[in-house]
Amino acid sequence: MNLSEFIEGNRDAHLAELCEFLRIPSVSAKSEHKPDIERAARWVADHLRAAGFQKIEIVQTNLHPLVYAESLDAPGKPTVLFYGHYDVQPAEPLDLWTSPAFEPSVRNGNLFGRGTADDKGQVHIHLKALESIQKVHGKLPINVKVLIEGEEEVGSVSLWDYVQKNKEKLKADALVVSDTSMLAKGVPSITYGLRGLNYYQIELTGPARDLHSGVYGGAVPNPLTILTELFAKLHDKNFKVTVPGFYDKVAKISAPERKALNSLPWKKKAFEEAVGAPGYAGEKGFTTVEQLWTRPTFELNGVWGGYQGEGAKTVIPAKAYAKFSTRLVPNQDPHRIAGLVEKHIRKLLPKTVRCKFQVLSTGKAWVAPYHAPIFKIAQGALEKGFGKKAVFIREGGSIPFVTQMHDTFKVPCVLIGFGLPDENAHAPDEHIALENYFGGIRAIAHLYTDLAAL
Amino acid sequence: MNLSEFIEGNRDAHLAELCEFLRIPSVSAKSEHKPDIERAARWVADHLRAAGFQKIEIVQTNLHPLVYAESLDAPGKPTVLFYGHYDVQPAEPLDLWTSPAFEPSVRNGNLFGRGTADDKGQVHIHLKALESIQKVHGKLPINVKVLIEGEEEVGSVSLWDYVQKNKEKLKADALVVSDTSMLAKGVPSITYGLRGLNYYQIELTGPARDLHSGVYGGAVPNPLTILTELFAKLHDKNFKVTVPGFYDKVAKISAPERKALNSLPWKKKAFEEAVGAPGYAGEKGFTTVEQLWTRPTFELNGVWGGYQGEGAKTVIPAKAYAKFSTRLVPNQDPHRIAGLVEKHIRKLLPKTVRCKFQVLSTGKAWVAPYHAPIFKIAQGALEKGFGKKAVFIREGGSIPFVTQMHDTFKVPCVLIGFGLPDENAHAPDEHIALENYFGGIRAIAHLYTDLAAL
User: Fold this and answer.
1) Which residues of B touch A222 (CB under 8 A)?
2) pLDDT of B81-133, one tens digit each?
3) Which of A149, A319, A416, B275 is deepest in the core (most CB within 10 A)?
4) Which residues 119-178 in chain A show a CB within 8 A of chain B?
5) The 3-state secondary structure of B363-403, one letter per residue
6) B89 & B203 share domain
7) The pTM is what?
């Protein structure tokens, strides 16, 4: 039996086993799920053993365990580090799920359940691809290291600590991650670029306490009004960010890359239907795809202050708050941008408020040279798995781990996602298309096989 | 024994009785206090009887009872309607009270407890003044109607319904209210003007659901940003409201009134110390007192949207909200202003958001001709009670009942407050200065006596 036949013959067994994995409510954000987290880590370790890995470790950390495994039986052949996570987002609001979050259910060719797309389903694709190769060929044709963490949804602190302390152990020729999406249904995709992310919070303080807006209104500066006046100044009428120096270092996209991105089978109409806004606007001079993947942004993520309850309260609040973020692109330096943003905001604010400015996190953008050989191999493997040519895409989001690993090991990172943009990762009714789950196992089995030629 | 001696001789008894009234936790906002509300209404009725009133009614309503009483034994003499309320604000947060909210306690010449200033203490001033006159003179020299409600802190709906249905019964030559503040300690004050209040809420909707700011940021209009851009346009650099027509009908203040207001014993430095802001700003061309009492405002009272929790969430929210209000002055028409505000806001908003605009309430300003005879009588009575000349002031807040009564009965309203601006009405450690409580009883006894000459 060849590899393809083996995989085809095990469809039902693979799907049943994935459902078993999905039934473990490994919600990393909630301490009540700590036993489930431990159970999920053991489940991953057990199934890595079934996949033929001999050296398997469950690494205890300050929070949730990591699972590490390695198969280094292919001397002289490339070594690949596969990264994924077994933890999931909370399932709430529970009443918005059509079928229970932790009771996987198939409807219309999709498997529904928390973790189907993000990321248990995609981790399972790799486990089953590796197991299939082992069962058909008796061994893996390359060296494989596997690192599956349990804190991705809560910040990956333990992972990063582990990587720093085990650089030699984790060394590889390439990093493979499946935690992203395909461009669209039927379009196998390789992601070669991510935006970076700085996240900020400010607190403006005017009066020492909340004031009655009748008694004091008209003679006391209102922090809420000042907040609105501040953020209204941060974009110009062409939707450019007004922070001086913000665009200084932004890498130019080459004409061929720009052409390639704009030629992708991506439909603006489908995008707008998915968003459902009454109208659209973005930075002038760039197409929507360019705005989303190649341009930096300044975005308000939360604003609050004063009275939010039912009815009326006539208050001038003492404080006003905002959370906001800048998405960054190559070659913006996150620390320099954070400094420019703070400087500009402090300059714009009047002396009638005090400002507490916090940088909650920084992270730079990542872009890979997608003409490197490993990308060609990945593209070929995807074509074998899906029967369609894979496209090279960028994404607007950020995966700090990819940037950190790339910076630490200076090796190519290949992001092959089997989710779809509308599969509700982080939301009720999360699902994965079964055609992408099964196609993923075929493609990834080809990938690990073909990487022997790297 | 004359009236003054009687009042002086009953200081301790009056104070003890007020404490009894204050111990009833008549919180109108909370249904668990319904029995206390009923008890407070009966307490008021009983003490009106003790004060010599024969006709007393506890009027059941859809919510909390009203207490009505009348003494019409002075044919040919003026009739005065006294209005107050026996309900109080909730006491929370309880841990910020130095002594328990419903266990009245004297410290440093102040009586602490919920309702001391707003409004039980002030209602009790009138009860004891009326009772003292009855006990000393055997009868009241004028006709008095008393209306004490139990819903002032929750909107006075039943009161207004009752007034509409009992116009003939409530008819009077003047309305007297004690539910305001003195300008400052040692400055007995008569309030002859209040600002009106329109309260609004808007909901802006952009995308059909919350979006990931990485995946969508840069090509989707952010309702929070649009909200800030909207409100940043509603004041110009001189702090004037930019709504076209907003100032069209604003009544000019006469030169003598302007001079009188600016000559009051009111200290800007004390005001700024009480507010505690890092800086001040208000409408150009007007003094602080003028800004607070005679100029209309446009004020944000609450803003919210997106993520407000700990840490970071990278969201472009579907919706952004604001609550805001306009304080109005004579002769702005509240309905016209509401229309102008809505028209302007809709004009300013881009087509990338939908806007739900709500007017939660409207209310016009009130100003009395303070040279009318009743104001002179009130000024004289206050001087007799406090040994100091009373001043005429306006306030920046709004008391809808006063405007409504004035419009319904077309009679003078005299607002004589015995609170102080820093006595924490609606906040923990609410208190009233004992000198103002006792001075109030003396002054109000003189007022009801001297009004016979009206």
Assistant:
1) 299-300
2) 999 999 998 898 898 899 999 999 999 999 999 999 999 999 999 999 999 99
3) A149
4) none
5) CCCEECCCCCHHHHHHHHHHHHHHCCCCEEEEECCCCHHHH
6) no
7) 0.90
